[in-house]
Amino acid sequence: MFTNKDNSDSNSKFVQTVLGKINPSDVGPTTTHEHILIDFVCMFNPPSEASERFKAFQPVTMENLGWVRYDHFRNQDNLLLADENVAVEELLLFKGHGGRSIIDATTIGIGRDPYALSRIARLTGINIIMGAGYYVDSVHPHNMDKKNINDIADEITNEIKIGVGDTGIKCGIIGEIGCSWPLTKNEHKVLEASAIAQSQTGASILIHPGRNEKSPFEIIKILSEAGADLSRVVMGHIERTIQDHDTLLELAKLGTYLEYDLFGWESSYYPLSHLDMVSDGARIDFIQFLINNGYSERIVTGQDVFCKSRLAKYGGHGYHHIMENMIPRMREKNISEPDIHNLIIKNPTEILTIKTN
User: Fold this and answer.
1) What percent of the chain has pLDDT over 90?
2) Whole-prediction pTM value?
3) Angle made by CA atoms 16, 17, 20, in degrees to the nearest 5
4) Is residue 237 scored above 70 in pLDDT?
């Protein structure tokens, strides 16, 4: 379905997966924001009513799937992806639809699992790129107040250059770096540390912004002042953060990649924000608007699968949704083949390519 014509010298340019370095030409069709394994129970928000609360602690089943899907965060079992066998099955569906690489954006605080990701990568043949750094303040370790910016920068740098802990398994991107609204003191430190780590590693930075349209601008200002290369920053969750065209163009002009990464979330109800969640059709329209304004080479896409109800096994769209359903719809909406190639291959490859001096 796709080809990648990048013939970069792997000695000077490489992409770092959980199984080691690969040539950028081997990246192929990519989803840039997923969670293959994740413990997201930190986001569990059970209802207060007795009958509803009973449902909150049930396993996800066909009988309660509609209730779970309406608000992914009110069922505890839904928020835990821990079965490696299920992960393998889901990624093989992605592979079967032409997928080649996935950024696993699970960072410190939500169950990042280097060994398991390596096993899954071997079994599926999918290039898995693991994220370095910290998620939002609410899941930071207890000693975070005592860490200074350089401490955190060293940790992130080591996760990319040496490996996570004593696993020897290396990250290939910084993030997703979690930011709340309003931003906390420790999240501010992590942003500054991420900028330092970027300069030391050459890795891109993937951002989870706070749920306010001012948040991306605040984050970019902090990163810029800390010396980050904004052309290698990915601003995630754009569709749930900015839905005004003028504001969107204002952000695009600052030079980061814009990530539409919630494809498959078709329910307009979004319990964590005052905004309604947009549909997949609207996501494509936003992307087309940006392309028409000259930003085809600054957009990436994903599904941000983080819970059972979004897996194919549980009746969801799975990691292959963009490949199976959205690319045909993009074509129907007259997005060109070169632009689709940018979204799915070229731009992700640029983000993931680490250039050594």
Assistant:
1) 95
2) 0.96
3) 75
4) yes
Task: Using DSSP bridges, classify how beta strands 354-355 and 13-17 pair: parallel, antiparallel or unpaired.
Answer: antiparallel
List Cα–Cα distances, 263 to 260, 276, 277, 291, in angstroms: 7, 14, 11, 18
CA nearest to 103, candidates 355, 329, 353: 353
Q: How confident is the model at residue 355 (pLDDT cuts 50, 70, 90)?
A: confident
**For residues 220 and 255, what is the distance between their CA atoms, to the nearest angstrom?**
10
**Cα 246 to the center of its chain, rounded Å:** 25
Is the bond preceding residue 176 a cis peptide, omega within 30 degrees?
yes
What is the model's pLDDT at position 12? Answer: 85
pLDDT in tens, 146-158: 999 999 999 999 9
Pick from 201, 152, 150, 154: nearest CA to 178: 152
User: Would you call 329 helix, strand, or coil by DSSP?
Assistant: helix
Q: How far is Cα 322 from Cα 30, in angstroms, rounded to an integer?
A: 10
DSSP annotation of 15: E
Burial class (CB in 10 A: 0-12, 13-18, 19+), 356: exposed
Strands 299-301 and 257-260 turn out to be parallel
Q: What is the largest CA-CA distance in the chain?
A: 61
Q: Give all domains of the chain, ordered by start, each with its CATH number.
A: 13-355 (3.20.20.140)
Q: Provide φ and ψ at 321, rounded to 5°.
A: -60, -45
User: What does the alpha-carbon distance between residue 220 and residue 217 come to, in Å, rounded to a whole number?
Assistant: 5
Q: DSSP per residue over 123-136, as a string?
A: HH--EEEEEESB--
**Beta strand pairing status for 205-208 and 173-178?**
parallel
| C-beta atoms surrounding 13 within 10 Å | 18
Two tokens, residue 155: 């940790």
